[in-house]
Amino acid sequence: MPESRLLPASQSDCRTVSDPVKEAFWAALASIPHGRVCSYGTLARLAGLGRGARLAGRWLGQLPEGSSLPWHRVVNSQGRLSLPADSPAGQEQFARLTEEGVSIRNRRIDMKRYGWPD
DNA sequence: AAGAAGGCACCAT
DNA sequence: CATGGTGCCTTCT
C-alpha cells in the first residue's frame, strides 16, 4: 500500500520537487479567497492541468499536515466534500470551512454562493 | 439519482 | 523503457 512517502515540509511549505506545474498548482490553491471554495477540476484548469482533476486531488493529498495552504477550500464539482466524513482530514476540512463562514448543509456547499472563481 | 465512460499523471511491476 | 491499475474527479447517459 502506498501513502507512505510524505513531504519533508521543511522550510516553506510543501513541494518535494521544484516542478513548475506543481508550483502553479500550489499558487492557484493559495489564491482561493478566504470563505470561498473551488472544485478540483476548476483548480486543475487554473493551474494549467487541463482535465487533471483527479491529479489535483492526488496532489492535495500529498500536502503536509501543517500546511498553510487552503487545501480545505477544494471540494468536488457538485459542491460536496470529497473526503471521508470520518477521516481526520475530512473533519478538519469541515471545521475550517465552517470557521470561514462557509455554510455546509448535509456535507454540501452552495457553489452559486461560495464557488470561486464566480 | 445512479452508473458508465473519459481523462491524465502517478506508482509499482 | 513499456504497461497496467489507481485516485480527495467530471461529465455525459
From TrEMBL:
User: Where does the Methylated-DNA-[protein]-cysteine S-methyltransferase DNA binding domain start and stop, copy by copy?
Assistant: 21-102
Q: Name one GO molecular function term.
A: methyltransferase activity
Q: Which UniProt keywords apply?
A: DNA damage, Methyltransferase, Transferase
Tell me if Methyltransferase is a UniProt keyword of this record.
yes
Q: GO annotations under biological process?
A: DNA repair; methylation
Give the protein name, as stated in the record.
Methylated-DNA-protein-cysteine methyltransferase related protein
**Native species:** Halopseudomonas xinjiangensis
